Amino acid sequence: MNCDKVQLLLSDYLEGELQLGLKRELEDHLSACPDCARLLEATRSLASEWPRLPEIEPPAGLIHKLYLIPETASRRKKAWSFGWKFWLSPAFQPVLTALTVVLVVFSLLTFTTPGRSLKKTAALELRRTYSLAQKTLVRAGVLKDKLQGYRENFIASLEAKNIYKSDNN
Which residues form the signal peptide (predicted)? Predict the structure, then answer.
């Protein structure tokens, strides 16, 4: 046993909390080392003087500051709760996964040759679809005009035969 270990175990020795084998090793060292023996005696005398010391009342400001320590620590903890641990928490992992997938797809479409050709193909298909939609709207307008003409001719023929009287006349 060395002096550093004796210093660590000295208070446990004085309180009688050491195991028998460890206690014997410590006592052997104390009998061989005068420095550790003096430290033991100084610690014993301090322990015997301790109960005779007057109890000092701490200042009110100190007590108040001690009570504020947990509140301040919890405020600091809340302020930093949105740190790097939050981003790695299990609740946020699906968001990180989705973001990663979006970034990978975006980079594949933007920075690779197949992605560029896919963008060109998508743009071409969009133009083609827009053109078809325009043609369909024009045809719908022509069809509407034709139906309006048929309606007017039908009403005119009914009025000529006095079967139908319109409100316009």
Answer: none
**Whether residue 150 sits in one domain with residue 98:** yes
User: How many domains does one find in the chain?
Assistant: 2
pLDDT digits (tens, 9 = 90+) for 92-128: 888 889 999 999 988 887 788 777 777 788 888 999 9
| 85 inside domain | no
Residue 28 has a pLDDT of 93
Tell me if 28 sits within 8 A of 5, measured CB to CB.
Answer: no
Query: Residues 47, 97: one domain?
Result: no
Residue 79 lies in a domain: no
Q: Enter the DSSP assignment of 18.
A: S
Tell me which amino acid residue 9 is: L
Domain that holds residue 40: 3-51
**Cα(87)–Cα(83) distance, integer angstroms:** 7
Query: What's phi and psi for 159, nearest 5 deg?
Result: -70, -35
Please list the ranges in the chain whose pLDDT falls under 70. Answer: 73-83, 166-169
Determine the Cα–Cα distance for residues 89 and 87; give it in Å rounded to an integer: 6
